[in-house]
């Protein structure tokens, strides 16, 4: 009994440390549910690096950006730096002549290009088992707009992974992997710091 008391007292004196290594990408995205409750695609001036819109709102790309950032990887910085060095490799859909660190990382086609350029593009299949927790998937919605989300570690009754995303009502975890045309499948592991 005395040893248990000593161990408990010792443990109470230990500092509480949050271990981001134990936090998974789906966990990091799931933490946004109930926090990001709106959808706002408006252009905003952002801090750099580490800039973000108000956490109560955002777009589909913000779910991905925030999840990676929670694990210590800043895609705003990585995408901007890659675009700065290789601007010609990125889509020219917005009439820009140079990079814009406020918005470049918040555009689905730019993220698709970034993940493809860094060797993380995977085959698009209709097999649920090919989509692992933390994978990134892009779609073409029925209205023609691009969309992006993260594969969850949770599945529906048929074994199809759920998706963590924001399609207009804040961050949600939903059954929609095969609901729209898949245009990209990526597995991104940030380089070691």
Give the key terms.
single chain, 193 residues, alpha+beta, 5-stranded antiparallel β-sheet, 5 helices, 5 strands, disordered N terminus
* Strand count: 5
Q: How would a crystallographer describe the biggest sheet? A: 5 strands, antiparallel
Please give the count of helices: 5
The total tally of domains equals 1
Helix and strand content put the structural class at alpha+beta
Apparent shape:
globular
Radius of gyration: 19 Å
The CATH topology is: endopeptidase fold (from Nostoc punctiforme)
Q: β content, as a range?
A: 15-25%
Which CATH class? Alpha Beta
Major β-sheet strand ordering:
4-3-2-1-5
Arithmetic mean pLDDT: 91
Low-pLDDT ranges: 1-20
Proportion in helices: 25-40%
Listing every helix as H and every strand as E from the N terminus to the C terminus, the arrangement reads HHHHHEEEEE
CA distance, first residue to last residue: 45 Å
Task: Write a short abstract of this structure.
25% of the residues lie in helices and 15% in strands. With 193 residues, the chain is an alpha+beta fold.
């Amino acid at each position: 009994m005395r040893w248990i008391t000593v161990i408990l007292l010792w443990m109470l004196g230990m500092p509480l440390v949050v271990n981001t290594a134990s936090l998974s990408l789906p966990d990091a995205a799931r933490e946004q549910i109930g926090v990001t409750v709106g959808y706002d695609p408006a252009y905003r001036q952002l801090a750099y690096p580490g800039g973000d819109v108000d956490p109560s709102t955002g777009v589909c790309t913000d779910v991905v950006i925030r999840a990676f950032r929670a694990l210590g990887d800043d895609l705003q910085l990585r995408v901007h730096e890659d675009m700065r060095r290789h601007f010609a490799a990125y889509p020219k859909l917005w009439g820009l002549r140079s990079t814009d660190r406020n918005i470049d990382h918040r555009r689905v086609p730019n993220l698709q290009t970034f993940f493809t350029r860094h060797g993380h593009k995977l085959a698009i299949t209709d097999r649920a088992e090919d989509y692992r927790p933390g994978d990134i998937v892009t779609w073409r919605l029925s209205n023609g707009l691009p969309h992006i989300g993260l594969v969850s570690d949770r599945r529906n009754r048929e074994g199809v992974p759920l998706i963590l995303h924001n399609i207009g009502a804040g961050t949600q975890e939903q059954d929609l992997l095969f609901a729209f045309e898949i245009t990209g499948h990526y597995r991104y592991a940030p380089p070691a710091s």
